[in-house]
Amino acid sequence: MKGKQVLSILLAGVLTAGTMLTGCGSEESTSTAPAASSEATSAAAAAASSEASEDTTSAAADAAESEDMSDGDITDIEVYGMCLSDMSGVQAVEDAINKITESKIGVHVHLNWIAMGGYSEQISLKMSGNEQMDVMMVTPIQASAFSSLTSQNQLKPLDDLLTQYGTGITSTVGDYIKGCQLNGVTYAIPTYRTLNSDGYIVMRKDILDQLGLTEKAQNLDNWTDFEDIMKQAVKADSTLNGIVNADSDATVITEQCFLNGPDKFADDTTYDPLGDTYKIIASDSSTNKVYDYFESDAYYQMLKRVKSWYDEGLVYKDAATSEVGGDELMKTKVGFSYVCQSEIGVETSKKAATGYDVVCPKFCSIPVSTTSCTKFCWGIPVTSKEPEAAMKFLNLMYTDADICNLLAWGVEGTDYVVKDGQACYPDGVDATSVAYHSADFMYGNQFLCLPWDGQGADFRDTAKKSLEDAGTSPYLGFSCDTTSISNELTAVYNVIQQYKGGLETGSVEDLDSNYAEFKTALQNAGVDKVIAEYQKQLDAWLAAKN
Predict the structure, then answer these.
(1) What value does the mean pLDDT take over residues 124-135?
(2) What is the pTM (predicted TM-score) of this model?
(3) What are the residue boundaries of the structural domains of the chain, listed by start?
(4) 146: CB partners within 8 A, 6+ apart
(5) How far is residue 42's CA from residue 192's CA, in Å, rounded to a whole number?
(6) Which among 86, 119, 176 is positioned nearest to 398, based on CA atoms?
(7) At the top level of CATH, which class does the domain 6-194+373-466 belong to?
(8) Of 306, 307, 305, 277, the residue nearest 293 (C-alpha)
């Protein structure tokens, strides 16, 4: 779609905006919003980023400038992403982004943000309808996850495009890109962020302060004491649920990678899921053995714990069917707490997402793994009509501070302002009233985003050092080619979807009988063949590595 005149571009923008789903705040405004202040944003980002990131950004910017479209031709691309809450100012963000992209790379971007609960379904429908999607966010939710998309050949190989148009990406992301490879071929790009994460319990501090439990929460080291805190919170405010689902997949405490069976946090452990996003696969690094997570004793102990909480009236009754996650449910005063995976600075990021000061005790640490890299990444779907332009835009997403800040925080002066090297809400604006506010870990290069209010101007340097010092899984870079077990994975996933919601939210009447049925159904669906295939490929990968 090259050689578009201004009128054609505006019409295309209106038509695209009209197809966006409501709930993520797409607008049909044709007014041009002011672009984020390049001077203020770039200066603050430079202060927050490392010298290496600055060098990469400068080199990429120079390369991008050299590609300016002197003949005025503009290529339109469709970008699809998942949003975690309402973002009604997305049109203004899109306009500001296009002021940059049209000038630097000759690309006009249409942002299509879809609510978390419907993202995977909508992406699947658009794939099957061969609709134009040039760039898409790959998520931890199964139908839009890396393993699912690659097994169905729905992502384009990126190596040639990266060589020609994405050198800024490869020099920025480095070896972490191996986490998004399959048989040595790159199919997506991990967001460059604090890939090392931890398990946290997020609790509203105002409730804790009111009950005199803040210090206890800050020093929490076991699940029994957390249960006691929840009981007191619910007793103090009967409209609150003690704990809500963390995501739209009915997860309460069974976040992937965690084995929270023991009561003491110090006894809880983690595992590498080897890139699997169905939650089937777990591994034991001491023996290099692959096993079924759902049949582990730790998983059963987690189910028992949540079931007891549900019976005590602590778990959100709609957790099994809710299409929104912990951030939104806390923001709307539905929940007192939720469990999540997050990174350094979690208190500040969750305050921005929920509107509340929070206390976030850590219960487990997770090293960098293939799953860390594929959790949030970006790919070019096979339905892309403009893959070259898509890669040019992705390259800017990983190297241009203005693009990063627009996607994460919105338009400067409207959605955020810069104070002391940090982004913060303008006077009179907060998490409940801002037009656009997303998350810095979901787009391109987190280290080029301004730190959020409360993190400190040097937070990005601190976070980057945390990543550099983090441990890595011995299986980093391993991805299983699931083509030969695609039928079994589909059958197993259907079983998981049938049983998971009730089991993992505690809402089933008889836990033991339902759990026994679940395990039998997994066996009948072919889970053993899935485990065996992962084991075979892991053994071969380890042998080749040695």
Answers:
(1) 95
(2) 0.71
(3) 6-194+373-466, 199-366+478-546
(4) 138, 180, 187, 188, 275, 277, 374, 377, 379, 479
(5) 18
(6) 176
(7) alpha beta
(8) 277
